[in-house]
């Protein structure tokens, strides 16, 4: 009376110990080859019509299909730890499938025809090979199928020779079958060991890649603080320096620090793309303004190198579109940066138009040495440069192509010369733009604008305060959320720049409490963080009135202040 419950308890305990990841991979392997397996099984049963009636062939074929589909059904999304009964059903359906597939050729084994016996042996060998390969990722699945097929073969062979009264043939065929089963068992164990090792190595590689990604993200985050101070304070000193030589030296320092910052962002983006964690955030974008602003950022660098930047926007190019403008700016900036590094005196052409299919197409052509035919595609690989003696790390073009393809477009190097001509294509949707604001007076003044800077890192507060004073605004500084709430209550700032990641009250918590404290008097609050932190905060960060990416630049801060000034 106690044996069945004890056996059931043992079976359920066995099921709960099975690895979910291994079963998931087994399902992927079987599902991937479903159509090809079904085609081969159909062929095998079709040949069997030469030795069996149609109704028997049809019956066993339908049973084979039913058991196969049932096995896949129970394996799909299976978690043995919480679904042990379903796991046992998967093994039962798998054993039923092997039983049906082995029984059909076993019937032909009883036909008095050498070809029928050859056909039966062939199908049995095919079954054993199948069990030792495709169904061998998860060992119990292979064992249940091979065991069922072996039992059917032994029973069929015994019945045949016993009915014929031939003990000698029974002994010989049984011995041969045992040898085949023994060899198949060794193959199953060896193949499973190989599959298991591959799975473990893949998981180890995945964990190592995650660790690398986390390390790079943490390193980038830690380096942003000193880099922000170097860029911000050096730029401020360059702007205020009276001597041209000092301005030039500070300019080199600023550019070097920005190059380092771009390298950090490129490495971080590359890691995010490889880990498939790069987030696209389409929004209503002023396409004309974005392209002009991106070109304007590099105009001075082109002029310093004796080049002239020509920008042309086609008349049919819409102004307001739905796309990820930040990623478009990143792609275009990488291409323009490449033109600055490798271009020569003369003109650099930037043309934006619509393609025949309605996508955005931006062509950037410089008059540099161009790219050799051997490197035409390789320059889009990470850390490959067009010229060994050229500047840069070889990441910009690789990341830009990855981004463009993630957005549904592409980045290619056109064959026309001279120089290098890159074509960036991206899809977009035309949308209605916002109501145009009243144009501000020339040279907007930020005199009297009180800006609360909330950041737990002193150097970040210093840089922000320096930029704000250069723009004419009055900075108010808070080292944490509690201090920010007190200043907001007593000083009533016109704008708040809020760091997202702070100890104690983070930026979102501080915003919520500030909203409860000030109510309708709450000023615009702009989040300040690294890009990946804004993505990590997700919906919680949506309550802010904008987002500035660290490190802050004078241009990005001026743009934010301009938007706020228009609203006041």
Q: In short, what is this structure?
A:
With 568 residues, the protein is α/β, with parallel strands linked by helices.
Task: Summarize this structure as a short list of keywords or feature phrases.
568 residues; alpha/beta; Rossmann fold; five-stranded parallel beta sheet; 61% helix; Heat Shock Protein 90; 13 strands
Secondary structure: elements and pairs:
Elements: H1 3-16, H2 20-32, H3 34-48, H4 54-75, H5 84-109, H6 114-132, H7 139-164, H8 167-240, H9 244-274, E1 283-286, H10 287-304, E2 307-313, E3 320-323, H11 325-342, E4 346-354, E5 360-365, H12 396-406, E6 410-413, E7 421-426, E8 429-430, E9 450-454, H13 458-470, E10 474-478, H14 481-491, E11 495-499, H15 507-518, E12 525-529, H16 531-537, E13 547-549, H17 554-567
Parallel strand pairs: 2-4, 9-10, 9-11, 11-12, 12-13
Antiparallel strand pairs: 1-3, 3-8, 4-5, 5-7, 6-7
Spell the H/E element sequence: HHHHHHHHHEHEEHEEHEEEEHEHEHEHEH
Task: Please give the alpha-carbon distance between the first and last residues.
Answer: 84 Å
Identify the overall geometry: elongated
Number of helices: 17
- Strand order, biggest sheet? 2-4-5-7-6
Strand content: 5-15%
Q: Which class of secondary structure composition applies to the elements?
A: alpha/beta
Give the radius of gyration: 35 Å
3D structure, described in words:
It is a single chain. By secondary structure, this protein is of the alpha/beta class. The protein folds into three domains: 10-165; 283-430, Histidine kinase-like ATPase, C-terminal domain (Heat Shock Protein 90), CATH 3.30.565; 450-567, Rossmann fold. 61% of the residues lie in helices and 11% in strands. The chain is built from 17 helices and 13 strands. It has helices at 3-16, 20-32, 34-48, 54-75, 84-109, 114-132, 139-164, 167-240, 244-274, 287-304, 325-342, 396-406, 458-470, 481-491, 507-518, 531-537, 554-567, and strands at 283-286, 307-313, 320-323, 346-354, 360-365, 410-413, 421-426, 429-430, 450-454, 474-478, 495-499, 525-529, 547-549. The strands form three sheets. The protein has a five-stranded mixed beta sheet with strand order 2-4-5-7-6. Strand 4 (346-354) and strand 5 (360-365) form a beta hairpin. Helix 4 (54-75) packs antiparallel against helix 5, helix 6 packs antiparallel against helix 7 and helix 8 (167-240) crosses helix 13. The longest helix is centred in the middle third of the chain and has 74 residues, at 167-240. The radius of gyration is 35 Å and the shape is elongated. Mean pLDDT is 82; it is low at 435-443.
């Amino acid at each position: 009376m106690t044996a069945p419950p004890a056996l059931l308890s043992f079976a359920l305990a066995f099921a709960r110990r099975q690895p979910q990841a291994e079963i998931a991979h087994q399902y992927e392997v079987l599902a991937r080859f479903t159509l090809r397996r079904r085609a081969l099984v159909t062929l095998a049963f079709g040949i069997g019509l030469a030795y069996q009636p149609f109704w028997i062939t049809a019956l066993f074929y339908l049973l084979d299909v039913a058991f196969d589909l049932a096995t896949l059904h129970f394996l799909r999304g299976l978690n043995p730890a919480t679904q042990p009964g379903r796991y046992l059903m998967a093994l039962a359906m798998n054993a039923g499938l092997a039983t049906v597939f082995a029984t059909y050729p076993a019937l032909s084994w009883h036909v008095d025809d050498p070809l029928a016996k050859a056909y039966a042996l062939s199908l049995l060998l095919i079954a054993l090979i199948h069990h030792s390969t495709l169904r061998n990722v998860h060992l119990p699945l292979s064992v249940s199928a091979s065991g069922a097929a072996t039992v059917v073969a032994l029973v069929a062979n015994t019945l045949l020779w016993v009915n014929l009264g031939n003990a000698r043939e029974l002994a010989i065929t049984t011995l041969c079958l045992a040898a085949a089963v023994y060899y198949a068992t060794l193959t199953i164990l060896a193949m499973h060991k190989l599959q298991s090792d591959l799975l473990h190595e893949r998981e180890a590689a995945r964990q190592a890649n995650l660790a690398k990604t986390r390390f790079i993200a943490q390193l980038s985050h830690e380096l942003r603080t000193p880099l922000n101070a170097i860029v911000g304070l050096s730029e401020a000193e360059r702007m205020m320096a009276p001597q041209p030589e000092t301005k030039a030296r500070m300019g080199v320092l600023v550019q070097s620090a920005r190059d380092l910052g771009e390298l950090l962002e490129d490495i971080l983006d590359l890691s995010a793309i490889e880990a498939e964690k790069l987030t696209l955030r389409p929004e209503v974008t002023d396409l004309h303004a974005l392209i002009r602003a991106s070109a304007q950022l590099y105009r001075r660098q082109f002029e310093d190198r004796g080049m002239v930047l020509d920008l042309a926007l086609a008349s049919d190019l819409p102004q307001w579109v739905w796309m990820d403008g930040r990623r478009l700016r990143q792609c275009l900036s990488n291409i323009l940066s490449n033109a600055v590094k490798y271009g020569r005196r003369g003109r650099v052409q930037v043309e934006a138009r619509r393609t025949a299919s309605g996508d955005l197409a931006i062509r950037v052509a410089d008059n540099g040495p161009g790219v050799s035919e051997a490197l035409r595609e390789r320059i889009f690989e990470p850390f490959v440069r067009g010229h060994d003696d050229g500047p840069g790390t070889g990441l910009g073009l690789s990341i830009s192509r990855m981004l463009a393809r993630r957005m549904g477009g592409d980045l290619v190097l056109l064959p026309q010369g001279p120089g290098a001509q890159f074509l960036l294509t991206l899809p977009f949707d035309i949308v209605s733009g916002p109501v145009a604001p009243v144009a501000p007076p020339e040279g907007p003044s930020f005199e009297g604008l009180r800006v609360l800077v909330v950041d737990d890192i002193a150097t970040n507060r210093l840089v922000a305060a320096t930029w704000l004073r250069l723009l004419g605004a009055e900075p108010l500084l808070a080292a944490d959320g509690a201090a920010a709430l007190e200043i907001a209550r007593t000083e009533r700032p016109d704008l708040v720049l809020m760091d997202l990641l702070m100890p104690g009250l983070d930026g979102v918590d501080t915003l919520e409490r500030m909203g409860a404290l000030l109510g309708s008097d709450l000023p615009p609050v702009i989040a300040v963080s690294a890009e990946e932190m804004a993505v990590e905060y997700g919906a919680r960060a949506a309550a802010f009135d904008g987002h500035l990416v660290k490190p802050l630049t004078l241009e990005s801060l001026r743009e934010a202040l301009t938007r706020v000034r228009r609203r006041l």
